[in-house]
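Section 5: illustrative case.
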């Protein structure tokens, strides 16, 4: 009992001990906040990647795609020993392309913008079954059967755009093209307007009459959200607002290479929807178009260069099964090295490893704050031992054992750690819970946006408090405090009562 009483008395009277408590408090609170924010970002990123990439992906580097048809590949996988674990599959085509579209500035002048994009040909209904594709669509959010169909509003906007272009004196009028014969490989696309003029005439020829039984097709496209929207910051009020530069019904021109890899091909698509995954890399570079249209444009017939697979719930969460059983079994079916089979973790391995490495390094660096508190405990306890020579001698002469004396200082170090860790945990959890309000307050005071929402389009800072992480942080802080108090405690325990009372 006397040990506890002395510890509590030292805690109330030794104000230097509060320096150690504050150091432990700051270290524990900082580690909890950092781990919660890093875990929140990591989970958010993994959810987005998993939803976009599906569980397992088969791809080939061949520009012409797999030699087998998608139906054959799917059937071979279903007939394999792991076929019973497959829930859905979605064949697609992925390639790099250039996209070009026209916007108008605040003065009405036309500005042509060209960007490099990742062009993906998909069947939207199948794509929605293998991942969270429909979850990230703006107009068709969470639709079980999304499509590239244009709404009546989008069709009306398309007609308005064509009418405005024809009325623009600085533009040549558009000449709609008749659909090519069925025997031609590329059919039915709205392509860049072709100006046909007779040198003897004063102007371009009038447009030909479209036949009712052969209307031009309107192939839709789903663009990344960042291509059609941007954040505008008012220079006077500093208020940020989102503005649109593209809307459903606007045309985009897309050029890529054909299946042979030597000749460029192109077509015009009509925006039907936007894809918002809240990841800048995807929202600013991915363009989805109908699979059959991209096959015809590139001359791939009925071939694809990628197949996405979704596993059944019991299998998709078992990483050991996915990496040790499913992926090798599917790889045996697909020829090497023409094709590769990877899980979504393997595809994004460098990125996920970088996040884990960064989180580990931050923990190590921030734990040094608690290390500083440990040195404070060591210094303060050494001072207490030097000042309390006489008291230690009196206690030992009255019968206190060396183990009891040592227990006093070790218990004192433990008490400092418990108080510091308790307060640090409360402060860290409160800070994490109110981190968005704190960020808004600091941004308003400093005039500088601390959390830039243009990077990921997150509405708020994501956080995730892990109980195990909080426990480990507290255990580490307590260990540092106890270990730092052992050396002064040993010094006090080894003190002989005669030597302690010699000069008294």
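Designed sequence:
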């Amino acid at each position: 009992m006397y040990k506890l009483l002395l510890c509590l008395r030292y805690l109330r009277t030794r104000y230097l001990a509060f320096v150690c408590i504050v150091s432990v408090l700051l270290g524990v609170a900082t580690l909890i906040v950092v781990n919660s924010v890093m875990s929140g970002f990591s989970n958010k990123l993994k959810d987005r990647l998993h939803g976009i990439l599906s569980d397992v992906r088969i791809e080939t580097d061949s520009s012409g795609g797999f030699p087998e048809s998608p139906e054959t590949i799917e059937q071979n996988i279903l007939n394999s020993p792991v076929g019973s674990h497959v829930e859905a599959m979605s064949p697609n085509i992925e390639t790099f392309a250039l996209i070009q579209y026209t916007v108008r500035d605040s003065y009405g002048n036309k500005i042509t913008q060209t960007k490099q994009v990742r062009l993906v040909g998909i069947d939207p209904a199948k794509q929605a079954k293998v991942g969270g594709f429909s979850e990230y669509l703006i107009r068709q959010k969470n639709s079980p059967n999304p499509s590239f169909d244009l709404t009546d509003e989008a069709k009306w906007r398309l007609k308005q755009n064509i009418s405005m272009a024809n009325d623009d004196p600085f533009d040549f009028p558009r000449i709609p093209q008749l659909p090519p014969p069925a025997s031609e490989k590329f059919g039915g696309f709205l392509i860049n307007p072709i100006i046909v003029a007779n040198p003897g005439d004063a102007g371009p020829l009038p447009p030909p009459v479209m036949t009712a039984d052969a209307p031009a097709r309107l192939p839709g496209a789903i663009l990344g959200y960042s291509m059609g929207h941007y954040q505008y910051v008012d220079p006077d009020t500093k208020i940020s607002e989102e503005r649109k530069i593209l809307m459903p019904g606007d045309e985009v021109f897309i050029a890529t290479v054909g299946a042979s890899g030597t000749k460029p091909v192109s077509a015009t698509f009509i925006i039907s929807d936007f894809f918002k995954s809240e990841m800048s890399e995807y929202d600013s570079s991915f363009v989805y178009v109908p699979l059959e249209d991209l096959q015809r444009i590139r001359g791939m017939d009925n071939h694809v260069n990628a197949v996405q697979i979704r596993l059944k719930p019991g299998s998709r969460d078992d990483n050991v099964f996915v990496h040790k059983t499913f992926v090798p079994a599917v790889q045996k079916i697909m020829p090497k090295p023409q094709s590769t089979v990877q899980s979504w973790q393997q595809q994004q391995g460098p990125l996920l490893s970088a996040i884990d490495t960064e989180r580990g390094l931050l923990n190590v660096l921030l734990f040094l704050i608690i290390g500083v508190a440990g040195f404070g405990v060591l210094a303060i306890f050494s001072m207490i031992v030097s000042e309390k020579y006489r008291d230690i001698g009196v206690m030992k002469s009255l019968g206190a054992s060396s183990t009891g004396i040592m227990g006093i200082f070790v218990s004192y170090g433990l008490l400092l750690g418990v108080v510091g860790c308790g307060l640090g945990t409360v402060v860290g959890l409160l800070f994490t819970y109110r981190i968005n309000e704190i960020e808004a307050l600091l941004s308003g005071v400093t005039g500088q946006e601390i959390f830039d929402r243009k990077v990921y389009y997150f509405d708020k800072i994501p956080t995730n408090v892990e109980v195990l992480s909080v426990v480990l942080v507290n255990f580490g802080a307590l260990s540092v405090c106890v270990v730092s108090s052992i050396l002064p405690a040993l010094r006090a325990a080894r003190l002989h009562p005669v030597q302690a009372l010699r000069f008294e």
